[in-house]
Amino acid sequence: MKKSRVHILLLVLLSLVYNKASSQAMQPTISSFETAYALAYEGKTNTAHKMLSNLVNEPETEIETSVLWASTLSWRGDYNLARSEFNNILSKNKTHRAAWISAVKNELYAKNYATALGLANKALIHIENDQEIVRLQAVATDGVNGTEYDSDGWFNVESTVHTKFTGVKKSSPTFNETTVAEMESVHTTPVTEEKLKNTVMVNSAVTFFDKRFDPITTSSISYKRQTPYGTLIPRINNSNRVGKNGIQLDLDLYPKIAKGFYAYINYGYSESDLYPNHKVGGDVYYNHKNGIEFSAGGRFINFATKNVKYITNSLGYYTGNYYFSLRSYITPESDNLTNVSGNLLVRKYLKDAKNYMGLNVGVGFSPELRQFTSGDQLLAETLLYIESQRLSFEYQFTSKNNLNAYKTNIGVLRQEQSFDPGSYFYSISAGLTYEFNF
Fold first, then answer.
1. Are the C-beta atoms of residues 45 and 76 closer than 8 Å to each other?
2. What is the spatial distance between Cα 36 and Cα 72, in angstroms, rounded to a whole number?
3. With respect to CATH, is domain 198-437 assigned 3.40.190.10?
4. Per residue, what are the HEC states of the chain?
5. Where are the domains of the chain?
6. How do beta strands 420-437 and 377-378 pair?
7. Rounded to whole angstroms, how far apart are CA atoms 35 and 45?
8. Are the C-beta atoms of residues 219 and 206 closer than 8 Å to each other?
9. Nearest-CA neighbor of 254 among 281, 294, 220, 289?
10. What is the mean pLDDT of each successive set of 10 residues along the chain, which is 438 residues long?
């Protein structure tokens, strides 16, 4: 009996030791995540990142661990890897709020506004009317449009993100909430860049024709200045054709009106017969929070022998990395013309709003074609009465520091000859634009 009691006592002791060891074996995983979580929001991102790198490789990783891991990648500047991690998480957990918010913020940190907008739109499909996601959607929309956003949490000019947050910053966050989702909703990046308010742009282009017309060369230099009230762009245009050289002075204004509204105003003047004497134009734009943009306006062009007026409007839509814009031109009946022409622009944004490629298709009686000659006669710059079809491709990319941007475009035009209705000529044009920001 004594031996039996001893055996039983030993079994009990062994069981207690085993259970304690098992509990201790499980504890590091739990405490490691909590420790990494606390370290991450104390600003010790690198240490938390190293701890989480071990946890995410375990067979059954909790989603909170994966989200926090991906967030640390984003905070460290590994935006591409963070994007891949968030994609993996969201493909399996489409209603995880913290993952959606962190994924959108990752693209905003990387200045990929079009991608951020697409993610925000998708997030609102699965998580309807979430105020934080709606706020980030508005930030991304403003980033894509290249306008300032002066709401709580973010401030951006063109492709540069500046953050001013009433909560904690990445450099010194606090661990004072109970969930990753709540903490992520107040996490942001510090202000690290100065505003780029000035841009100088130089453009040069050439057009070749298959018959009758000599090549046309054009060039321009412009200066863009961003102000608290909007953007100002004075420009000097130069054109060389039919053995003549002409200069045009041009001015673009983009004044702010109200939240979601801005305007475009243009005025051009020239004493050369290669350009209109005066041209005036304007549009009012409205950006809806769901990525849709509307505009309406008109143009007035004063030539030496004729004035031209027409109405223009556009409908734009941002979805994912893509932007679609359809613009129409309608000549008023007072000119005995009711013809309509239009342009369709399809643009895909790459890493941000300054890097993209696009395709432009136009048909109808275009009011904004280049000037041509017919024998010794110079045709007007806006050939409203000439049928045409045109196709062009554009590609813009920036330098590593985003201070320089390069844009190239190439286009093909098929146009009816004014002196021979039903007969067409073809042209091909190519241009290059360089801009420097400071």
1. yes
2. 10
3. no
4. CHHHHHHHHHHHHHHHHHHHHHHHHHHHHHHHHHHHHHHHCCCCHHHHHHHHHHHCCCCCCCHHHHHHHHHHHHHCCCHHHHHHHHHHHHHHCCCCHHHHHHHHHHHHHCCCHHHHHHHHHHHHHHCCCCHHHHHHHHHHHHHHHCCCCCCCCCEEECCEEECCCCCCCCCCCCCCCCCHHHHHCCCCCCCCCCCCCEEEEEEEEEEEECCCCCCEEEEEEEEEEEECCEEEEEEEEEEEECCEEEEEEEEEEEEEEECCEEEEEEEEECCCCCCCCEEEEEEEEEECCCCEEEEEEEEEEECCCCEEEEEEEEEEEEECCEEEEEEEEECCHHHCCCCEEEEEEEEEECCCCCCEEEEEEEEECCCCCCCCEECCEECCCCCCCCCEEEEEEEEEEECCCCCEEEEEEEEEEEEEECCEEEEEEEEEEEEEEEEEEC
5. 2-184, 198-437
6. unpaired
7. 12
8. no
9. 281
10. 54 52 40 65 65 64 80 86 89 90 92 89 89 90 67 34 28 28 31 63 93 86 92 95 89 90 95 90 88 91 78 88 88 60 89 88 61 42 61 93 91 77 84 94
Q: Which residues, 6+ apart, have CB-to-CB distance to 70 below 8 Å?
A: 82, 85, 86, 89, 99, 102, 103, 106
The phi, psi pair for 377, rounded to 5°, reads -100, 130
2-184, what's its fold? 1.25.40
Q: Which residues contact residue 313 at a Cβ distance below 8 angstroms, ignoring those fewer than 6 apart? A: 294, 295, 296, 297, 327, 328
Model pTM? Answer: 0.56
